[in-house]
Amino acid sequence: MENNQALISEEEFVRRAIKRLRKPPYLGIHSVYSGFNQAFKAHFGKNPVEITKKMAEEGKIIIRPVRGGVMLYLAEEAPRPKEDVLQKILAPEEA
Question: For position 95, what pLDDT does the model report?
């Protein structure tokens, strides 16, 4: 079993964590409150910030800053802004 755990890549670990640690109806996980940061450090002996930033730059995950840490989402499941706020404010009045 130990060998099987060692074969998982850092990226796969992040993807699995997001899928398995999230609580419905939420699509993402809080990096600290979910226990993700601690689990990543325990498994890989590294800081998870570097790999999550790299994955975000590659478009694999979305990182949103929140109180006490960040929310991690799979790129294909991240919540999208409903409408640009500035456009909404400056749009003409609806009749």
Answer: 59
| Total domains present in the chain | 1
36 part of a folded domain = yes
**pLDDT score of 1 more than 50:** no
pTM: 0.78
Asked if residues 53 and 62 have their Cβ atoms less than 8 Å apart, the reply is: no
Half-sphere exposure in the Cβ direction for 46 (13 Å, CA): 10
20 lies in which domain range?
2-90
Among the residues of 45-84, which ranges form H helices? 48-57
Length of the chain: 95
Could you tell me the end-to-end alpha-carbon distance of the chain, in angstroms, rounded to an integer?
A: 65
Q: How far is CA 38 from the centre of its chain?
A: 15
Q: Which domain CATH number covers 21?
A: 1.10.10
